């Protein structure tokens, strides 16, 4: 399978910096049958944490987060997936570099012969990023 890329819509929420904060969200998602395709949770500094969620059903996930008393904001990123082969990630990073895009974050992983990554950049740079990646 050739590498496929697409622009995705994500939800970003602030988290309490305490054990179980992300588990609470995922418990609510389980109860409401919300499938999350990818997520990132991280501490941003003392007393500050956030989660970025890529749900299958964006509207339903946003509703669940709001019902939990959270204030989700919408953002966009680029998602890529394909067969796990040496250099696939490097190829996309080269295209991004050549387009002059400074990434805020990226995360790549491989499972069972497939790989995936998400690229986060400034909102204003997303059209250029998507163009460079062909999404």
In short:
The protein has 135 residues and is an alpha+beta fold. It contains 4 helices and 6 strands, in the order βαββαβαββα. It has a 6-stranded antiparallel sheet.
Account of the 3D structure:
- The chain has about 140 residues and is of the alpha+beta class.
- It has two domains: about 10-75, VC0802-like (2-Layer Sandwich); about 75-135, ACT domain (Alpha-Beta Plaits, 2-Layer Sandwich).
- The chain is built from four helices and six strands.
- The protein has a six-stranded antiparallel sheet.
- Strand 5 and strand 6 form a beta hairpin.
- The chain is globular.
- The mean pLDDT is about 95.
Tell me, briefly, the overall form: globular
With helices defined by DSSP (H or I, 4 residues minimum), what is the helix count? 4
Structural class: alpha+beta
Main beta-sheet strand count, sense and barrel state:
6 strands, antiparallel
Number of DSSP-assigned strands: 6
Low-confidence stretches: none
Question: What is the CATH class designation of the largest domain?
Answer: Alpha Beta
Lateral arrangement of strands in the main beta sheet: 2-3-1-4-6-5
- Assembly annotation: single chain
Assess the beta-strand content as a share of residues.
Answer: 35-45%
Architecture of the largest domain, CATH level 2? 2-Layer Sandwich
Averaged pLDDT: 94
Question: How big is the Rg?
Answer: 16 Å
Number of domains: 2
CATH topology of the largest domain: VC0802-like
State the end-to-end CA separation.
16 Å
Helix content: 25-40%
For CATH, the homologous superfamily of the largest domain is named as VC0802-like
